[in-house]
Amino acid sequence: MKEIPEAVDAADVTSWSDEVDVVVIGFGISGGSAAVSAAAAGARVLVLEKAAAAGGTSAMAGGHFYLGGGTAVQQATGHDDTAEEMYSYLVAVSPEPDHEKIRAYCDGSVEHFNWLEDLGFQFERTFYPGKVVVPPGTEGLSYTGNEKVFPFTEKAKPAPRGHSVPVPGELGGAAMVIDLLVKRANELGAEVRYETGVTNLIVEDDSQEKRVVGVRWKHFTETGAIKANAVIIAAGGFAMNPDMVAEHTPALGQKRRTKHHGVVEPYILGNPNDDGLGIRMGVSAGGVAKSLDQLFITAAAYPPEILLTGIIVNKDGKRFVTEDSYHSRTSAFVLEQPDQVAYLIVDEDHMQMPEMPLIKFIDGWETVEEMEAALGIPEGNLVETLDRYNKYAAQGEDPDFHKQPDYVAPQTKGPWAAFDLSLGRAMYSGFTMGGLAVTVDGQVLREDGDVVPGLYAAGACASTIAQDGKGYSSGTQLGEGSFFGRRAGTHAAGR
Ligand SMILES: Cc1cc2nc3c(=O)[nH]c(=O)nc-3n(C[C@H](O)[C@H](O)[C@H](O)COP(=O)(O)OP(=O)(O)OC[C@H]3O[C@@H](n4cnc5c(N)ncnc54)[C@H](O)[C@@H]3O)c2cc1C
Known about the structure:
Blueprint (H helix, E strand, L loop, with lengths): L7 E2 L8 E8 L3 H12 L4 E4 L15 E3 L5 H5 L6 H11 L5 H9 L1 H10 L22 E2 L19 E3 L10 H13 L3 E3 L3 E9 L4 E10 L2 E12 L8 H7 L7 E3 L3 E3 L2 E2 L8 H8 L4 E2 L4 E4 L12 E4 L12 H8 L7 E5 L13 E6 L2 H8 L5 H13 L22 E5 L8 E4 L2 E3 L5 E3 L5 E7 L4 E2 L12 H18 L2
Parallel strand pairs: 1-8, 2-3, 2-10, 3-7, 10-23, 13-20, 21-24
Antiparallel strand pairs: 4-6, 5-6, 8-9, 9-10, 11-12, 14-21, 15-20, 16-17, 17-19, 18-19, 22-23
The structure holds flavin-adenine dinucleotide (FAD).
């Protein structure tokens, strides 16, 4: 399903079920933040949520928020950071940095941290030093990006900015923030209607431009129309729409060959309403979507981080990425390799099984020559790559990829083990990153750069800071969804 739903002409609407200042489509992190902020600014707010409860994909998230510039957790754990360093870092990792948005996000990051805590929780004032996907306990701070990875070490002073909610485990921590947003929305008088999906935008079309003036909704068999000064689309991404995935982010839809269960469906992160309808409705009113081909996709090799002392090679036996990269950066490089094939190779001294079984252990071999032959790597290539790596690693150096010294170690003691990082064999998972082009206040933009009056977008259906898997830092989506959701809500309330 890829079709653009028709925008309904307001002149064809015979009756309105409600009239409000701001309609918000979806109650995830971005819609909730938008609703609360619009209501706090005095607007009459109505949130329509297709599911039976608030939360969406946000409620599944582990709960990292990418924040910095000197938050209370950074200060309490002795990590100096400034908005300027954070800005330099985010600019460096973005393929097409949107300077205005990055500037706003970094300058507003400490205030946003405080706003989140004012909802009624505290990030723990503790730091987890290891390289992790999610901290093992309730530690409030860790490195969740490429801050300590070359070449970004040259561009900005590294600081940890992954702020995790005080809920242990990999999934569902952010549901706590959603519950607090629901509570705050209630206190501020914002109404939420569940099991009510928005099906179309309603526009006034006066030949000059389309202006969004409301939405059509569906509640089981009932339908209706709501008039609003502003509509904020916060309806999530499109990871669960197989047709859109096939067209824009095919790697996400790739099936996987397993040892025991044959070919299995891809593991896609999201909720069933991540069907891209929000993006498509935005387009129906004249908005333009960008970066739809960008995705976060990952099969993390660590923890344990000792595995990163090994080398990652493609099917030609060549290294292609600094192995200590944040996991989605490594994965993004894997996707660019011939046949999307890659192997992680370690020797006996550095061999441990991954804590999460995402990359597949293939086998161990007594010699590198045997391994090379078994993996189908052209003769001599792997031997040469490993010899060169080991030669410099013996001096703690990595002149080719500038891996940080902590992760540089010769791999000289057989047997050697190989793990499969190839797409279609390792267990990749991910979500989409593209969305509607918006201003710094969430106003949806047209192809010509003008705004679509009355229409806003925030969160995974908008394109703000996170642009691709190479530059992604865990916590950016919850961070930007809440931050720019707030801005959209405040701006929409002022219309
Ligand atoms: C397992 C997992 C872990 C993650 N961990 C993190 C993390 O730790 N940090 C981080 O930054 N990011 C994380 N992410 C990504 C992040 O969770 C999402 O990108 C983010 O939550 C999206 O927020 P949102 O508000 O845009 O969308 P959602 O939270 O999905 O909210 C959208 C809402 O809109 C509703 N909706 C959809 N269509 C309609 C419609 N037509 N009418 C009415 N309602 C509609 C949906 O039901 C949903 O409730 C994770 C994702 C997953 C799946």
